[in-house]
Amino acid sequence: MVDNTGRKTYRTAAGKHLDMEAMLLYNEEAIAVGNNPVNARGDEIGPGGEIIRTNTEVVQEYYATNPNAVEKSQPVASITEDLIPDSEKQPATVAPAMSVEEQPAPEVSATPKKTPKVTEAQAISADPTHTADEATQSALEKKIATAKKKAEEKAKKAKEEEEAKLPKAVTGALDNLDLG
Questions:
Q1: Which of 19, 25, 21, 61 is nearest to 44 (CA)?
Q2: Cα dihedral 159→160→162→164 (10° resolution)
Q3: Is residue 29 part of a domain?
Q4: Residue 58 domain-assigned?
Q5: Is the pTM of this model over 0.70?
Q6: Which end of the chain is more exposed for a tag (fewer CB within 10 A), N or C?
Q7: 52 lies in which domain range?
Q8: Residue 35 lies in a domain
Q9: pLDDT at position 154, please?
Q10: Handedness of CA 110, 116, 117, 118 (dihedral sign)
């Protein structure tokens, strides 16, 4: 969630809003947890919480003494004309475009191409009177009608199976009945 300050806040499991950036700024002088004597900002601290070296001083010293550190390179804007080779200074020539007479003729096939059958979706999309809503509605209506037919057939089949079981159960019970 972003509030009116433009900072990102998080909501805890308890439903409270937590602004991490504000918490970091509020606690930047606090001593960090661990065995490295630094505060939350990264400054080296001595006894009593006194700042010995700031974080920027530590980083500058690291890059000055580390042999694997990346060297600063020249910005692109400082390249002068004398650094560009002569072969690249001269403009490249451009070949003139082909005229209409010089262009090759398109290939003509001897056998006519078969046109694919137009599907219902293509016919609907080709017809300007159908809108996307009408096409969608008609497709949905077809699916609903198909589903109704399947449900009716299933119910009819289940009813027939129950009716087929009923006479056997009744006649079987009568056969075992002792009327005697």
A1: 61
A2: 170
A3: yes
A4: yes
A5: no
A6: C
A7: 9-70
A8: yes
A9: 93
A10: negative
How many domains are there within the chain?
A: 1
pLDDT of the chain, 180 residues: tens digit per residue = 555 667 788 899 999 989 888 888 888 888 888 898 998 888 999 988 899 999 999 988 888 888 787 776 656 665 566 666 777 666 656 566 656 566 666 666 666 666 666 666 666 556 655 555 676 777 788 888 899 999 999 999 988 888 777 655 555 555 666 665
| Backbone torsions φ then ψ of 26, nearest 5 degrees | -70, -35
Q: Is the residue at 174 inside a domain?
A: no
**Helices vs strands, H then E, count in the chain:** 5, 4
Dump the DSSP string for 73-116. Answer: ---GGG--GGGS-HHHHSPPP-PPPPPTTTSPPPP--SSPPPPP
Asked whether the beta carbons of 9 and 18 are under 8 A apart, the reply is: yes
Q: Which residues of 51-81 are buried (b: 16+ CB within 10 A; e: fewer)?
A: eeeeeeeeeeeeeeeeeeeeeeeeeeeeeee
Nearest to 31 by CA among 18, 53, 48, 19: 48
Distances (CA, A) of 156 to 10, 21, 142, 164: 57, 67, 21, 12
Give the helix/strand (H/E) hosting 43. Answer: none
